[in-house]
Amino acid sequence: MTRVDSKNLFDFKPTGQIDEDVQAMDSQFEAMMEDSPETMETMNRMQELQEKHDPESNAEYIKLFRGVSEPFVQWLNGNEALKFGGEETVMTSIKVPTSHCGEYDVSVEVYTPKELVNETRRGAYIYAHGGGAVSFSAADVRPGVQCQAVHMNMVTFNVDYRLAPETKCPNNIKDYYEVVKYVSKNAESLGVDPAKIILSGESGGGYIVLGTLIMLAEQGESDLVKLAMPVVPMVDDYCFSDPLAMTVEERFSHAEQRKIYQYMIAADFEQQKTSPYLFPGKASEELLEKFPPTIIIGAEFDGFITEYTRFSSRIRRAGRLLEFVVLPGCTHISFYIPGTKGNNTFIEVIKTIAREYVHC
């Protein structure tokens, strides 16, 4: 493939400190947790279980991990600023049949901006939700992704891929991959332009997207995708390195991340630890050269900053990186919180990407 031509649209300067509005919210959350003995007990128990890897401990850990995330989802989705996404889109759904891990129909929520309802050559934005590939669902992130549909001005397919540990690597990636193939093959009946298919997802969803890019590259199908845009993605096994060399955020989450990869996502960690499906950052140069044009969006104070910074460098050298954007002053997903400085920046970034790289 020829080298992509970057427009070099973004030049954010790091601030060296977390935005004040994010710090204030973090303080509020910490105070709420400290005021809840039950929550503190759960967090302490999860920390204990990070070092226990028997089946019973792992089952207890993932149950607690999923449960402790629910209050944040409810709080975020209750934000009044997210209501406009639902008001300005029409929601439908599709089922995508798959057979790679039993006969299973992948559920996909579809959000169509109302101004695009009567058009037939619309851009397609295929989204993978976050949650470390072990938690959350398409419905959990619905309000925020509906807003992205409006900002991107694209029909958005919110994929409810199966989660680990119930579904092991690479089958959760294959769920998303099959949706990408389905949208491309059925573009006419779905009313989308097959030349304007965009892949995106945050955190664990970014990992799912990167795994799909590898699958597409291996199958010679990267031309199905106009642009890939993983956001704060999980990339490689940096969490298994010495925490003394890590950033504060990386050090804070490294033990949790080790457990998730080794005992939740991997089918057989020892056999898969060199696989780019478990760790996309281990993709060969040959595969990277076959990637579709890619934009990686990160955050200055993210727990995966080292991983995707060096992966971006490799994609750039392979000639497939359009932009590497690091949102200043932001933590892992703080820029998804409406009203924050980081969220305003993120919205402008994705609008600009849509205008300059998709709808142009």
- Please give the share of residues in helix: 40-55%
Given the structure, what is the number of helices?
A: 13
Radius of gyration: 19 Å
What is the N-to-C order of secondary-structure elements (H for helix, E for strand)?
HHHHEEEHEHHEHEHHHEHEH
Beta-strand percent range = 15-25%
Q: So what's the overall shape?
A: globular
- Helical/strand content category: alpha/beta
Low-pLDDT runs:
none
Can you walk through the features of this model?
The chain is globular. The chain has 360 residues and is α/β, with parallel strands linked by helices. Helix 6 (171-185) packs across helix 8 (204-218). It has helices at 20-34, 37-49, 55-77, 83-87, 142-152, 171-185, 187-190, 204-218, 248-265, 269-272, 285-288, 305-317, 341-358; strands at 89-98, 104-113, 122-128, 155-160, 192-202, 227-231, 294-301, 321-331. The chain is built from 13 helices and 8 strands. An 8-stranded mixed beta sheet has the order 1-2-4-3-5-6-7-8, sandwiched between helices.
